[in-house]
Specification:
635 residues; mainly beta; Methylamine Dehydrogenase, Chain H; 33% strand; globular
Amino acid sequence: MRSGHRKRNGRRGGTLLAAALVALMAAGGPAAPGAASAEETPRAAGAAARGAHPGAYQMDALDRGLISVGTGEGNLVSWRLLATDPDDVAFHVYRDGRRLTDRPLTGATNLLDADAPPGASYTLSTVGGDGVETRDATRALAMPNAVTEIPIDAPSGGHVANDASVGDLDGDGDLDFVLKWDPGDAKDNSQAGVTGQVFLDAYTLQGERLWRIDLGRNIRAGAHYTQFQVFDYDGDGSAEVAAKTADGTVDGAGTVIGDAGADHRNGDGYVLQGPEFLTVFDGRSGAAVDTVDYAPGRGDVCAWGDCYGNRVDRFLAGTAYLDGRRPSLITARGYYTRSTVAAWDFDGDSLTRRWFFDSDEAGSQYEGQGSHSLSVGDVDGDGRDEIVYGAMALDDDGDPLWNARTGHGDAQHLGDFDPAREGLEFFKVSESASQPSSLYIDPADGEILWQTPSGGDNGRGVAGDIWDGSPGAEFWSNADGSLRDTRGEAIGRKPGSANFLTWWDGDLTRELLDDTHIDKYGPGGDTRLLTGSGVSSNNGTKATPALSADILGDWREEVVWRTSNNSALRVHATDVPTEHAIPALMQDRQYRTSVAWQNTAYNQPPHPGFAIGPGMAEVRPSDLRGVPAPGLPER
C-alpha cells in the first residue's frame, strides 16, 4: 500500500528566513546586507564552515534552551553551547534587565546567581570575537524547584503515560515531546489477551497539546509493538513522527488510515492477519504524510519461531545517518530467529526504501543474533552510520559487517568507552547460558576484546564512566559480581543498580539512574543525589524514565518521569553548577540518534560519539560539524 496523504506546510516565515540564510552561506553564497541580526551571524558563520566540510551532517537548529533552576543558594542559570557557535563565543547574563556579568563568560555555560529571588527573570546575550554584544530576548524557563511540569491529557482513566521522545515539531528551536499512552492492560508478546488502544500525543514544552494519534484496535499494546521515531527526516527544520500503523489508525487530523471498520484481532488478542503499514506523520499537525506497506509483512507466522504470535511481532526502530549527512529511518522485525532490518528515506512527501536485510537471504548464521534494542553509530570510521543489532552489525548499505554469533541479549551499549583506543566500543550481555554473560567488542570488525564467564540469562548490563578511579568507562552486569575496566579487569564493587545513566552533577563522571532516583557511585557505596517525589517509572521491572536526555540548559541531562497520577510529565534538571564546557549533546550525531531509539523495546540510555570523563579531550563547537536544517543540499 502507498497512501499519499497531504502536503506538509512550510516553516514559519522568520524561521525559514534564518534557515535559508544558513543554507545560502553553507553553500558559499553571499548574504545580503542586513539579512541577519548579529545574533544569527556567528551561528551562520559556524554553519558555513561546517557546510563546506565533507563530514558535515544535518542537525536540529536549536535555541539556547535557557533555564533558571532554583537552588538553596540562588538560581542556577544554564544554557546550550551550540555546535554553530564560534569556538571563542562568550556570553553575558541579565537578571530583570540588569547585566550580572562584568566581563563576558567563556567556558562553562552556566552561572550561579547567588541569593537571587526564585521569580527572577533572565536573558542572555552573545559576545563575538569582535566584542560586539547581541541580546537575545528569549526569557529563561523558570524552574524554582528544579522541575517543570508539562500537563498531559490521558485518553482514558485506564491509560498510563509511557515512553517519550523529543524533537522540534514546529521548527521554533524548542524541543517538543511525543508521548506514548499505553492502556492498563498492555501485554508482553508472550501473554494472551485483548488490549486497549495505544495513543501518541505531541506536547510543547509549555504544555500545549499539538495533536493526538490513535493507533487503533489493530495495533496491540505492549513494549515490543510500537516503536516510534521522532526526527527531522526531510531536513525542513521540523521533526516528523514515524510509527507502525494498521487498519483503523486515526491520524492527528482525524483521517483514518486503511479500513476504519476492520478488526483483525483473534480470540487471544493477537493481530496475526490484515495489512501492516508504516506511516510518517507531520510533526506540526499529526497528519499522515505517507503510508507504505511495512517491510516485511508477517507472512508465515510460524517462520518467526512460534505459531501463536510472540516472535513475529518483535519490533525495533531507530534512526541512522547512512550517507553520513542526512538521517534515514530504520525499522526492524524479529531477533529470536529470523531477523530483518529495513532502511527508509523520506523527502517530505514520500517514503522510499533504501535497503532491506533479511537473515533468510543473508544466511542462517544471522538468525537469533538481535537484542531487545539496537545501537547506531559510525563504528568503522567511514563517516557513515552502521546498525549494531545485538551480536551482529550491518554496514551503512545494509550488508552484514560482522557477526560474533553469541546470540540474543537484553541490553547493549555503543560509545567511546576507551579514549585511549581509536574509535567506538560495544558492550552487550547474553541471554543464553551457553554464551559469555557479557562481551566487550570492537564494533568495527566484531573482535571480542574480553568477555565474562557464562551465567545464565544475564538480564542487565551497563557501560559508562561512573568512577574517576580508572581511565575510561566501567562495565557491570547482573551475572558478574565485579565492576570492570576497559581491559576487563575487576576493579571493585559494582553499583547497586544496572539500568540507566545520566550526567547530573558538576563533574565529568556519569551518575546512576534507576527507577525514580539518581545515585553517585563510590567504591564504598552509592550516594543518593535525587529521589523523585510523586513520580513513577515505566515498563515494570525495567523501571525506566519516560525519557532521559540533554533537553534543556547546558550539556547535563534532564530526567523526565510521569507523575504518579498521569497528569503531567515532570522534567527534572540539575541544580549543581559545573566548570566544564561541552556543546549541546543533542547536536552530536550519535547522541541524537540514541535519544531517538531510546524508547525502543527495552529502553537503554543514550551515549555520544565522543568520550566524556575525567581527563577528556576538549570538545569544541566546531568539532561536531553539524549544519542546522535546512542547510544541506538535497540528497
